Amino acid sequence: MLYDRIFAGALLVLSGLIAWTAFHFDVPFQYEPLGPKAFPIILSIMLAACCIWLIAKPDKNAWHPNKEVLTKIIIGLIIMVVYAALFEEAGFIIATTIVGAIFSWLFGEKPLKAFLYALALSVISYFLLADLMELNVPTGLLLGDL
Amino acid sequence: MDILHYLSIGFSVALTPLNLGLVLAGCFIGTLIGSLPGIGPINGVAILLPLAYSVGLPPESALILLAGVYYGAEYGGRISSILLNVPGDAGAIMTTLDGYPMAKRGEAGRALALSAVSSFFGSIGALLLMVIFAPLLSKLAIQFGPSEYVWLMIFAFTCLATMVGKRPIKTVVGVVIGLLFATVGVDSGTGILRFTMDIPNLFDGVDFLVVVIGMFAISEVLVLLESWARNDLKLTPVGKSFVSFSDLMAVKWVVLRSTLSGFLIGVLPGTGASIASAVAYGTEKRFAEGHDDKFGEGDIRGLAAPEAANNAAAAGSMLPMLTLGIPGSGTTAILLGALLMFNITPGPLLFEQQPNIAWGLIASMFVGNIALLVLNLPMIGVFVRLLSIKQSYLVPVIVMLTFVGIYSIHGDSFDLFFMIVLGIFAFILRKLGFSLAPVILGLVLGEVLEENLRRALSISGGDWSILLNGTMTYILAVATVAALIAPKILKVLKK
Lengths: 146, 495
What we know:
A: 2 domains, 5 helices, flat
């Protein structure tokens, strides 16, 4: 099975959903001839046509990930999700230290060195970003009263 | 002279201490980002955009900073091309062909210096052309009505589809996905909600920054994870960096030609630095045939041509972005999105009504290019040393900056999760051979396209023939057809 076909098939279903949703928009009043429905419907028809073409003439699969690579990508994704979940709750410094250390380790750093690097990075960046640039950086558990 | 008057306004904006500092910072960061393999100008601009927005820079300053990163990266891309044979960004792919052989011969310093000077002349040449053509183009564009704008955008998308990537159909899919993203949220005409799936965060539309960062930066981290392998790249020693007068004389016509073609290709919507450098290299190779031609083995002409062209294209792609509101490349699409976030609509009126932004940017590019020449000649050693930053140090910084940047806009974790979802989607697109620039172009132009289409049909009372009404619409329609069939004709001619 070619990846192009799977992807185009999924997009084809999506374009159908879009067209159906757009067709059923509840428009109470409208002053112009085209209205809010037409543009999405035109686009979904174009998308559907392109997808049918892609299903008929797909490219060969150029991507052959092995297990090791896939695991690495999935670990990377999981850590990013964890980062997003921790970011507000645990705060910038804790979240960045944990996530930064794992990323640094994934890219070949020794565990202890990765942890120390991430710790330094998060503490220094916190003060740069929050105090110097006055960005909205969550404090979370640490430094709650600063 | 009008132009001199406006330029003086521009320089008075560009030379304020804040903006001067931002130009220098942008150029430095840009060179660094460009020189690091993997992180191209698009990613650099994308990562910095939310930070520039949240810090509260005035629009012209934010634009000056981000543009500095953009053209700085076109300078920086050559460093790793020459020293490592790994292009730092897409525009520097052709630079590896003759740059790396020169470095292997022990002429890395000569190659770096000559390519920096070529880049400089390419940029300055294109900027001068821009100063001349920007007022003319905006005068022409001021007469454009909704029908003309619809055609202009269709033309841009056609150019993109036929010139970028191997499969035009995949580019079209990308554009349509981007356009559909743009329809999410409240419809400005009727106030109804479209495709929001009852998620309050989407009522305002899909946040441009979340899409850009998710699609570029997050997917880039995934790509880096995939491609990373434990090998320490060996840097070629630079040696003495110098520019000799005889080298410059040998490439003066090459640089001039490449600047012109690079500028033109940059102005064409959708086609950017990577195509410009490929075209310039190919042209010069044909010119040089039989004249002591050592292309591919370290010919200085093969080094100067793509570098002059990709920098000229970077400047050239700003012209349609500023005067028409149609970006000339993926990166300028992000710059356009940045302007829209500041509630500034680029277009013909920008030059009249807000000369401090349009001309301030142009003036800052003159300043920036001079700064880049200084950064890239005497200070080249600094960047060469930075090139050996390990990815284990770099990736945590990238991830951290993207998360901080996105969180700081609304202070809502929803954006972070949404960004990751978009990153996964973009990663799949990249792996299947779709490029991401069309999606961003579609997203940026979607609202304008729909608005103009609806306005045109309101004027005509629903009659579609308004789209072919007036000389300019015919010209643009013919240009669109030409862009559609030109590549096919060229292919036949080559045979």
